[in-house]
Every structure is written in structure tokens, then in C-alpha cells.
Amino acid sequence: MDFPMLSVLILVPVLAALVVMVLPADRTELHLPVALVLSLLPVGLAGILFARFESAAGFQFVEQAALIERWGISWHLGIDGIALPLILLTTILIPISIAASTSIAKSPQLFLAMVLLLEAGLIGVFSALDLIVFFVFFEAILIPMYFIIGIWGSENRIYAAIKFFLYTAFGSALMLAGIIALSVLQQQKTGFASFDYSDLLTLELTPGTQAWLFAVFGIAFAIKVPMFPVHTWLPDAHVQAPTAGSVLLAGVMLKLGTYGFLRFNLPLFPDAAVKYAPVVATLAVIGIVYGAAVAIVQTDLKKLVAYSSVSHLGFIMLGIVAFTQSGLDGGVIQMVNHGITTGALFLLVGMLYERRHTKLIADFGGLQKTMPVFAGVFLFSTFASIGLPGLNGFVGEFLVLVGSYATRPAFAIIATAGVVLAAIYLLWAYERVFTGEPDKPENVNVADLNLRETLIFVPLIILILTLGLYPKVLLDRIEPSTAAIIDRIEATTDFVEPTFVIGEPGE
Amino acid sequence: MSDLIWSAIAPEILLVIVASLVLVVEVWKRPPLKSMAWLIGAGLVGTWAAWFLQFSRLQDLMELGSPGTLAFNNMVVSDGTAVIAELILLVILTLGVAMAWPMLDEVGRRSAETLVLMFLATSGFMFLVASANLVMAFIGLEVGSISLYVLAAIARKSRLADEAAMKYFLLGSFASAVFIYGVALLYAGSGSVSIDALAVFNGRIIISPGVLYVSMAMLVVGVLFKVTAAPFHAWAPDVYQGSAAGVVGFMAASAKVGGFVALVRIVGITFARFEVDWRPALAAIAALSIVLGTLLALSQTDFRRMLAYSGVAHAGFILVGVTAGRSATEAILFYLAVYTVQLVAAFGIAAAVSGPTSSGSPFSSYKGLASRSPLMAAGLAVTMLGMSGMPITSGFIGKLGVFRSAWAQGLEWVVVVALVASVAAFFFYLRVIVDMYMRDVDEDTAEVPDEPRLAGRLAIAVAVVITILFGLYPAPLLDLIRNVVS
């Protein structure tokens, strides 16, 4: 058996969390650096994964060992081109979040341990190929995030933490019913129980069964995305969470929903997926426009970024249910892009809050003069988020729009409005916060980015530029896996991918 | 008499010997509690050894292809279910004694009685889980229950404790009477009180349906009372809140193990042929227990009352497994093993927080516990997550086990009700964690809790390890159960 890379990748953050916990409590100057250094190990491991990954369909780095044989549960891990970018994103955002958490005063060891445990859980979700193992990780990450919001959040943190937990847990409970149902169907058909993804793919489910299973899985993931109208936990959780919490929540945890759709809803229930895609697409487009519209009127900078996530995640969902190569590719790459740019924006808002202890847009003004570097980074991230050509956001949004235009032109056209609205709410916010003269006395002496903070943004800026100028580096690895999903849908339903090629007139 | 197989009841014998010895030594020497600890420790070690003897004998039998053995004129059975249930009871006793120690210190001379009653109660429930005969089951049930009635009042510090003991005794005796009435009816109709013989009998001859159904209902109701299933749960909150803090976890846990294993035998063997009749009734009771227990637990202000109502919901979850039939026995035993250990730990921590002889444990005294006593807070947090059925804890595996058995038997609706309720249940389990970790100490109401003694800390550690280890890798415990429960 090969070296169990994925298990090690899950285990390293857990061990790192233990190391951080056993550090002497009074040596506070040690906690953060140790956690930061340890959190770089997974980055290295993920780098090896990236380098060794072959651009082909199917799962790689597969490991399998029985956990509960008679129930058909096994420790089955493996990644394809959809999981790989998300694991990379997770490992990169964790050290960044840790480095940005210097202002955590209350039990920093516990905080750092929670962030590292969250990392282990996230990597587990993206690499699990057994539905129970997936479910365990999917649920388990609620615990660290619940603590992160509930202990280190702002005033209304307990309400936000419980709301976040219960929303997600409700969706998961429905999904668990679906998972159990799948394994019982598997047992009735083949005589042996299994929760294994590859076994369950071979089940030929009737359209009726597919419909309700698609619904229960779909609701669980839609809550996580979050899609309109189950998005209401998101503004609370994002706004109350500490900076690291918001970065990881928006950066990675929202992707669990979109990832779930790609990994489970489309391949396992293709018939229902084709049938109900218009419903999902409608909700996605509502989310795009609604999220953007609500973002425009926000007075709180953090809430603005939070609602922009609702809008951006709508794009990803629209791309996924387009069932076209560019739509799915765009969806996956946009997951990564959104993680990077929204992560950067949350970091910036957090740093602003640390300096001024307010997040209200009206309290700022003219900061460009006092903190030019900060303003520059903010503007750059804003452009990336809006989708300026040459930066990463453009690639994803463009692919999504092209891909969904092929199957659902009307939806794509409305979604384009979301791009325009994004420019409005972000640039208008930039204008109010940074341009003009600093007329309020508190805004005159705000310190610019220090070295540590600048270093935090270096990797993010490099990623924004790389993915914007040379997205092929990821797309090559994503494409075989997304193509496999479309092939499966075409093989099991009468759906045919429209032959619409960029640059050629449609029929 | 060839069937005097002493090993079949070896743990019970040891327990009764230790109980008697403690009584004699207490009257004769009046030793300090510290010296008594040696005797108790030796007694526990001996009982564990006796259990291993019984277990290895069962394994020998199974190698020969036998599922177990009847003994003592077909009164007692030593099979996989009995041996595993006795193991769980023994774990509960061991942890329970460790958790009760601070209370024993406080109750003075009554400490010996407490220990005697704990050992006797365990022996009674062991006889219950190993009974092959309904009269034997009744005797076991009563030995266990009567010991618990007395334990409920052992601290006798508050009127709440008196009230709890009185309620427990009156309602408990009533339930026992219902049970024995059911046994009598069955005997009148069939001429037998043997669990196995009745199964054969029920398979061949039809006794008057009236007699049959009434006796079946009475047996089931009598047991459901002991395991706090709704609507027979009304006594539980008062008893769990009022009884002496140090032993209430032991009381709740051991009664649940005894009751559920008896129920599995009665409906699964004696009335196996009438599955179509009891299945809908038990499914309805399971759903009712889950919904009612969860809803009532949501509105509690006292931690121990909350645990009582959550216990009603847990009884419902286990009943989901019972409803699924014999195929779920393995899942039920796993569930019982991990839930009861968590129950003992949670009540033990409550006793440490509110005082070892206290009645009640208001939520306000848990505020900021994480900063005052990180170990207890972490232990309670893990226990609460385990009870809530959070993945990565053994509570999840237990629920998954009973749910998948029930789903495969076509009881989808009960599973869905249970899943939705378990989401609502997160609310009150998390509430404790919120108080401990996310709120500051309430200076007016909170007393500084005593850190648990070494024994108590070890007991908490065992509960935490069982909760997390068997949540991540349940195979060892499941295999142990599966290998002996055919």
C-alpha cells in the first residue's frame, strides 16, 4: 500500500492541535508562532498532493480500510480534481487565519487548537469517499466552528453560534436519513450493506427515490452554501465570528455545500438533478441578485462582505447546475477564487476593526490618505471580487456565465446583473471608506499595514494574480473530473450537453 | 443437579458476598471509609474476575456452536446478551462507586449502606438481564428497584430527596405490581413462566387473545416504567433532581440497562410471534418518548431535570432499536453501553458542581465552569456532545446503529421523527456548553465546585475515552458484542 497521504494530512493538524494545547499556558508568546509553523506542514503536504496529482478522471491517493465491516462503513479516502483545489485552499487559508489572530486574548491555545481541528475536519470532508465518514467530518466541523464563533465572537456571538449550529444540524439530519436509506437500498439490492461512494454509484435508483434523496441531500447542502431562502444564518455567523472564523467560514466552509452538490447530488441522483436543476438555478439567481442588492444597502462593512458571499455562491451554484463543461469548471474554480478574495476582504475588515473598533462604513472616510498600502490591498481584492479581467474572479464568473448561457440563457443574463451590482456595492463601499479627506479625527492617525499583516496578504495576492493570468494550472486538473460528472449525467439520463463553443455562433 | 453452573452467576455471587461482607464489617469494626475502600476495591476486582470467568466460559461454549447455556433449573441463562449487559452493569457500578465517593464522605455512617445498596442493586439487575424465567426476572427487577428506592433517599438532606424517594417507591411498586400481574395472567393462560417455553407455547397454541394481549401489555408497561419511556416517565424528573447527587447517575444508568435487556428478551423471544401486534405500539411509544422528552428537556432550568427528560428521549431512541426486533440487539447494547457511561459521568460532574448530597443542579451554577475547572468542563462538554449524538462521539454510532436497523424494517417514519428531534435536542445539550464556555461566572449564585477526587477524575476520563474512542473507532466494542450476541 502506498503512503497514506490523505490520512496523514488529516492527522497532522490534529497532532498540531494537541501540541498547541500542551504548551505551557503562561508562555503566551509561544502559542501563535508554534501553531503557525505547525500549520505550514499541511501546506507542504498539500503541495506534494498537487505536484503528484495526475490530470485524469477518477480518484487518486485512494486508501481504504474497514471500520465497521458488517455495517459497510470503511475509511475510504481519495481525491479528484474537484477536491484537490479545495484541500489546497483549506491548507493555505489556515496559516493565514492563524497569523491574523494575534488579537485573540481569551484562552488562545484553545482557539488555535480549534482552528487546527477545523482544518483536519475540512480536509476529511473533501477527501472522504464513504458516506458515513463524510457525514462524520461534515458534522464534526460544526464543533470547532461553534466554539470559535461562540467563545471569541463579538457581542451577539452565542445567538449566532447556536443559529449556525442548528441550521446546519437540521440539514444534516435530513441528509443522514438519506444516507441510511441509500445503504438500506444497497443492502436490499446486493445483500451486503455499504456506505461506500463507489458502491452507491452503481445503484440504479428509481426517479421517485432519486427525487426525495436529491431533496434531502440538496437541502443539507443548500443550507451550507447558503442558498436563498436558507441563508439567514450566514450574516449572523459571519458578522459575529472573529476574523479567522469569518475567513474560514466564507473561505472554505461554504464550499462544503457546493462541493456536496458536485460530489453527491449530481452523480448519485442524475435523473433528479436534471429534473430539478431549474429550481436550483432559480434559487441561485435569486441569491445572486438578492445577495448583491442587500449588500448594497449595508451600513456594516463586514455584513456587506457577508452578503456578497450569498451572491457569489449563487454564481457557483448556477455554474454547477448548468451541466456544461465550462459551467462546472467555472463553479469549481470560483469556489477557490471566492475563498481567496472573500478571505482577503474579511481579513482587511478585521484589521480595520482592530484599529478602529468599528465596522460601520459611516465611521470611516479618507483612509486612503492615512493607510495607502491597506487601501491598495483592499482595492486589489475588490477588483478580484468584482471580476476584473486579469484577476481570478473574472475567470470563474466568465466560465460560469458562458456555461450557463448554453443551457439556460435567461438565467445567465439575469446573473450578469449580479456582476454589475457587485461593482456597485464594493466600489461604493471603497469610495465611502477610503476616498476623500479624513474628516473624522479618529481616521487621521490610523496605522497602515505592518510587516506581519503585509506578509499575510502576499500569498493571497500571488494566488489572485496566478489564477487570473494562468488559470490553466488548476483547470487542467479540474476538467477530467467535471467532465466525468457530465458524462455520467448524459449516460444515465436523456440530457445532452449543448454543443456551444466559445467564439462560435450557436445553432 | 447437573445444571448448577456457578460460573453463570459468578458476578452476582461475588456482588452479594461483597455486600454482605461490607455490612458485617461495618457493624463489627466500624472502620473509616478509607479502610472500607480496600474492601470495596478488592470486591470490584473480584467481580470483574468473575465476569471474565463467565465470559471465557461463554466463549468456550460458543466455539462448540452453542449460543449460551441455561442454568439452575432453567431460571438463569448465560448468553451473549446477558454477559454483555452484565459487563455494562459492572462498568456502571465501578464508575458509579468512583463518582459517589465524595458523597460517601459526607453521609458518614450511611456510606456503608450506600455501597451495600449499590452492589445489591447491581446484582438484582444482573439477575434480571440473565433471567430465563419471568418470575426470576421479577425477583431481579425487585432486588434492583428496591435498592434504588432506598438509595434515592440515602442523603436525606432535603424534602426534595424525601419526595423523590417516596414518588419513586410508590410508582415503582405499582409498576412492579403491573408486571407480576402480567406474569400471573400468562401463567394462568399457559401454565408456564419460562421465557423460552412461552415462546414455543405462543408459537403453537393460541391462548385467549384477551389474556394474551393484556398480559403482554402489562409486562411491557411494567418494564417501560423502569426505563422512563413516555408516558410512564412522570416520576423521572423529580427522582433525578431530588435524589442524592452522588448516586443518581448509577441509579438511572443501571435501571435502564436492566429494563431494556429484559424488554428485548420479553418482546423479542416470548412474544416474537406477535411482532405485528407490538411493533406499532412500541414504535408509537418510541416516537412519543423522543418527542415529549426532547420538548420537555428544552424548557428545563435544572441540569438534572434536563438529563431526566433527555433520558426519556434516549429511552425512545433505544426503543426504536427494540422495535426493529432481534436484529438490532447489537446496536441496542452498544447504545446502552455508551449512553449509560455518559449518564454516570454527567451526573457525577453535576454532583461535583452542586455538591455531593445536593438536590438539583441549576444551569446558572455551570456558568463559566470552563475557567474554574477546565477538566470538568471538558468532560461534561464531551459527554453532552456524546449524548446529543454528535458524530465523532460514540453517541452517533449508537444512534446510527438503531436507526439503520429500524429503517431496514420499514420504520422510516420513526427514524425521521427521531432525527428531527435530535436536532432540537442539540439546543439543550449545547446550552450547557454555552454556559460553561461562553458565559462568565455568575458571582452571586455560583459556589466554587470541588475538583473531583482522583477516582472521580479517572471515571470522567473513562467516560470521555469511551465517548470519543468508540466514536472514532467503534469496531472493538461492536465486535465484542457481535461475537457473543448471535
What report would you give on this structure?
The complex is a heterodimer of chains A (507) and B (486). Chain A is mainly α and 507 residues long. Chain A has helices at 5-22, 28-52, 83-99, 108-127, 131-140, 142-152, 157-190, 197-201, 207-224, 233-240, 243-253, 255-268, 270-296, 301-320, 325-356, 367-370, 372-386, 392-407, 409-434, 451-469, 472-492, and strands spanning 60-68, 73-79. Chain A has a domain at 272-499. In chain A, strands 1-2 form a two-stranded antiparallel sheet. In chain A, strand 1 (60-68) and strand 2 form a beta hairpin. In chain A, helix 2 runs parallel beside helix 4 (108-127) and helix 9 (207-224) runs parallel beside helix 13 (270-296). The termini of chain A are far apart. The mean pLDDT of chain A is 88. Chain B has 486 residues and is mostly helical. Chain B has one domain (6-484). In chain B, 77% of the residues lie in helices and 2% in strands. Chain B has a two-stranded antiparallel sheet with strand order 1-2. The longest helix of chain B has 32 residues, at 159-190. The radius of gyration of chain B is 21 Å and the shape is globular. Chain B starts with 9 loop residues before the first helix and ends with a helix. The model of chain B has no long low-confidence stretch (mean pLDDT 88). Chain A binds chain B through residues 66-71, 132, 135-140, 142-143, 146-147, 150-151, 157-158, 161-162, 165-166, 169-170, 173-174, 176-177, 180-181, 183-184, 187-188, 193, and chain B through 385, 390-392, 396-397, 400-401, 403-404, 407-408, 412, 415-416, 419-420, 422-423, 426-427, 430, 434, 437-439, 473-475, 478, 482.
Question: Keywords, please?
Answer:
heterodimer; A: 507 residues; mainly alpha; two-stranded antiparallel ribbon; B: 486 residues; 19 helices; 2 strands
